[in-house]
């Protein structure tokens, strides 16, 4: 993100954008700091911490919770109304996250757990047999 800012800053400067800083209110600066530190900085920090501890597919499923968290914040902070269609969509999202997060079935007996890409297994697609 820092590299992106560095690449875009000269274009901003040449369009007389620097004078616009004076027009940003204190609440606007607070919002900018919240987006940069809170949403982006802490978001990436938690994302990578999750990737260190869990499988990628399990961590990725939590991205789908973002709209629900946003909805909850909008209701609490902004007084936004919640319609039945929004609740139905939220239920579908929660069901999807639940399906991804639930316990997986154990691997069949005799399966070596090898890797097709590394040559550990020879897949026989017709019979469904993966023999080492």
Provide the residue-averaged pLDDT: 79
Q: Class by helix and strand content?
A: mainly alpha
Given the C-alpha coordinates, what overall shape results? flat
Tally of individual helices = 5
Low-confidence stretches: none
Strand order of the largest sheet: 1-2
Helix content: 55-70%
Give the helices and strands, then pairings.
Layout: H1 2-14, H2 26-53, H3 56-61, H4 66-78, H5 84-101, E1 122-124, E2 129-131
Antiparallel strand pairs: 1-2
How would you describe this protein?
The chain is mainly alpha-helical and 132 residues long. The protein has 2 domains: 47 residues; 51 residues. It has a two-stranded antiparallel sheet. Strand 1 and strand 2 form a beta hairpin.
Task: Give a concise summary.
With 132 residues, this protein is mostly helical. It is built from five helices and two strands; from the N terminus they run H-H-H-H-H-E-E. The chain folds into two domains: 47 residues; 51 residues.
